[in-house]
Structure formats: structure tokens, C-alpha cells
């Protein structure tokens, strides 16, 4: 039973949206101030829609607005709302986030952007109507693990493909330990199983434009919440039919909500060390078996990673993807960490010097400047 001191009725009314005893306990001080609990279902230019026990209200977020995009109110946040101001409700505070799906922004200041908060499942939609981009899938899975949510992969538009078995195998190989669903919103294939997994949880739906997210959202919610537009036959791409991040209720007694998002063109990593370790657990497991702890997996004897490449159990594509994402994550970190940035520059200079030295040695010393070892 919820804490009566913070008002049991409002919390029970929000149970379908994810309210539980933990949120109830954290909200107790705000309840004492006469504030109302609610979940943000949409944010739009400093205003937000908040679902409360009294229905959905429009509230100003000026009290919690911050120039730090990591602290700005976003879809999925739990809020403490003041309904007494004469000029309309105001969000006075946000409860602490249990999980947050964050990507890096294009800002030169290397800021992070929170796409959704307090999410249990990160549902990654990949369309089968175009070539499966496994590198992009690995990027999404890494971010999902980093967020603290459980990633799920949904291969959409299965009705457009004669044989999905090899595509399913490829997706499972790119997302070890992640459940992969093959679905069709047109025929209903796989939707019942997916809906059962999402019931009673908060899920965020992610993917590129044209991945079928809007159609999938409508199928899972049982309503035409999102407009659907046709994709181009030439490349499988579509326009961004979803323009905001909306938190939508799922049907059924189990409750649960789904956050639909606009198609994401750029998905930059943000502090993704943990996520990369989980997304590429197969490679990190191999690396742990290498003879040398500092093995670079390039030419060292006793390298388990190279052995896996040789016997075909690891593909060059996946190893290249892992290395690329590691470099990107390190670069993003260096833009905000002065010491790390200095270390990276020193390493680059050392590599450059070593490369020049090797070049000179191959040329025969470059006019008497060859080093003697």
C-alpha cells in the first residue's frame, strides 16, 4: 500500500503510468507542500503536458528549466506540480531519474541530450524493407545499455521480406544477450508477444526515419496516435512523421506506457563505456583470454581476438565497429575532460613520431638521423 501521508488516491490513479512505492516515498516532501505528482507526457518549448490524478494538465517548466540540457524536464520525468498559481500550473521540481536515454548533441560544447527518462525498455526498431545496418544497431544497443534500460530489438515490416531467418541471425549476432523480435504491423506477426513483454513497463521506441515506428506505435497502443507516411522505395527512408516525444498509454489491464520519438539521424555516444562493454561483451570476453593484458589485437602472439577472426567466430565488420565506437566515445569524453584530452593528444603525438621514425628507418636513416638501439 502506498504511503498515506503523501495521499494514496493520486498515486493509485497513476499506477498505470509507472507510479510505485519508491516514487511515493520520494514524493513525500513535495506532498507536504501541497504539490501534485504527475508524469510528463510531452515537452514543448518550456511548457509540458503532465498526466495527474485529476487528468492531463498543461504546466510551465520555468522553475526547473536549466541551460544544462541534462537537467531540462523531458518526456518520462516524474514531476511535482503546483496547481495554485493564477496564471496556470507550474512544475516546481523533478524526481530523481532512475534511467535516462542520453545522446551527445552536435554542440561544440559536447553536451548530452536526454531523450527519455525513467525507461525500463529501449525498443530499437530496424526496418527489414532496407538493408539491415548492423553498425547502427550496435550503436543503439550500446546507448540503450548505457541508459540503464533493457534493450529490445524489433525488426519491423517482416511482411516485405520472404525469408527473415538470416536477418534475425544477423541481428542477434550484433546484439548478444538482447531479445530480438520479428514483427509486421500490417499482418500482426509478432505483435502479441512484443506487447506482452512491454505490458506494465515504460518503453521508449527508437530508430531511424522510415523504420516503421509510427505504425508500430499505433499497433501497440490500439489507436492512431501518430500520422503515418509512405517511405521512398529507392532507399527505404521516410520523412519524420513524429515530431515530438510523446508518452502514450498501452491498452490492457497491465498498464504501461510507450514513448515514441522522432526518427534519429544522428545518434552520438555519451559516456558509453559501460554500454559498449555490454554491447560487445563477446569481444571483451575474447580480449580477456589474450596472452598479454595490453594486447592491441593487431599482431600479438596468443591473441584470442585474432584467433576468433581466423576461425570465423568473429567478423571483421563487428571488430571494426567496436573499435570505431570506442574511438568515438573516447573523443566525446575528451571534449569535456581536460586531462583525458591532454593524454589523447600526447598519445597521438607519440604515434605520429613513431610513424615518422619508422618511415625514416625504411628509407635508410634519412641522411644520418637514424636512431641506434
Order of helices and strands: HHEEEEEEEEHEHEHEHEEHHHHH
Please give the number of β-strands: 13
Number of helices: 11
Number of domains: 3
Please, what is the CATH homologous superfamily of the largest domain? P-loop containing nucleotide triphosphate hydrolases
Q: Report the sheet with the most strands, covering strand number, pairing sense and barrel closure.
A: 6 strands, mixed
* Rounded average pLDDT: 82
- Main sheet: which strands, in order across? 10-9-8-11-13-12
Query: Could you give the distance between the termini?
Result: 75 Å
Compute the gyration radius: what is it?
A: 24 Å
- Considering DSSP H and I runs of 4 or more, what fraction of the residues is helical? 25-40%
Q: Characterize the overall form.
A: globular
Strand share of the residues? 15-25%
Low-pLDDT sequence parts: 1-11, 229-242, 366-373
Give the helix/strand class. alpha/beta
CATH architecture type of the largest domain = 3-Layer(aba) Sandwich
CATH names the topology of the largest domain as Rossmann fold
Oligomeric category: single chain
CATH class of the largest domain: Alpha Beta
Amino acid at each position: 500500500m502506498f504511503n498515506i501521508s503523501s495521499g494514496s488516491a493520486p498515486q493509485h490513479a497513476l499506477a498505470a503510468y509507472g507510479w510505485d512505492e519508491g516514487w511515493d516515498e520520494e514524493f513525500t516532501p513535495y506532498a507536504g507542500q501541497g504539490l501534485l505528482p504527475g508524469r510528463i507526457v510531452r515537452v514543448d518549448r518550456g511548457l509540458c503536458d503532465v498526466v495527474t490524478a485529476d487528468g492531463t494538465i498543461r504546466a510551465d517548466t520555468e522553475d526547473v528549466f536549466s541551460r544544462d540540457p541534462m537537467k531540462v524536464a523531458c518526456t518520462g520525468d516524474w514531476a511535482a506540480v503546483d496547481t495554485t498559481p493564477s496564471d496556470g500550473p507550474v512544475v516546481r521540481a523533478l524526481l530523481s531519474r532512475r534511467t535516462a536515454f542520453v545522446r551527445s548533441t552536435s554542440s561544440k560544447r559536447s553536451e548530452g541530450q536526454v531523450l527519455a527518462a525513467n525507461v525500463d525498455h529501449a525498443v530499437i526498431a530496424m526496418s527489414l524493407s532496407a538493408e539491415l545496418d548492423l553498425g547502427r544497431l550496435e550503436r543503439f544497443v550500446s546507448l540503450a545499455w548505457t541508459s540503464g534500460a533493457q534493450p529490445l530489438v524489433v525488426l519491423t515490416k517482416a511482411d516485405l521480406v520472404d525469408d527473415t531467418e538470416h536477418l534475425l541471425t544477423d541481428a542477434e549476432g550484433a546484439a548478444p544477450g538482447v531479445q530480438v523480435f520479428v514483427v509486421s504491423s500490417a499482418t500482426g506477426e509478432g505483435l502479441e508477444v512484443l506487447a506482452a513483454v512491454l505490458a506494465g513497463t515504460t518503453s521508449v521506441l527508437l530508430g531511424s526515419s522510415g523504420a516503421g515506428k509510427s505504425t508500430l506505435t499505433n499497433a501497440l497502443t490500439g489507436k492512431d496516435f501518430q500520422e503515418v507516411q509512405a517511405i521512398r522505395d529507392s532507399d527505404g527512408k521516410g520523412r519524420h512523421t513524429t515530431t515530438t516525444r510523446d508518452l502514450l498509454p498501452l491498452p490492457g489491464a497491465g498498464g504501461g506506457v510507450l514513448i515514441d520519438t522522432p526518427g534519429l539521424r544522428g545518434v552520438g555516444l555519451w559516456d558509453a563505456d559501460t554500454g559498449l562493454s555490454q554491447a560487445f561483451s563477446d569481444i571483451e570476453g575474447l580480449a580477456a583470454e589474450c596472452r598479454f593484458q595490453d594486447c592491441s589485437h593487431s599482431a600479438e602472439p596468443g591473441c584470442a581476438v585474432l584467433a576468433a577472426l581466423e576461425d570465423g567466430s568473429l567478423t571483421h565488420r563487428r571488430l571494426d565497429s567496436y573499435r570505431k565506437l570506442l574511438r568515438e566515445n573516447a573523443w566525446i569524453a575528451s571534449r569535456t575532460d581536460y586531462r583525458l584530452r591532454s593524454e589523447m593528444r600526447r598519445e597521438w603525438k607519440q604515434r605520429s613520431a613513431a610513424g615518422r621514425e619508422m618511415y625514416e628507418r625504411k628509407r635508410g636513416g634519412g641522411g644520418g638521423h637514424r636512431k641506434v638501439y
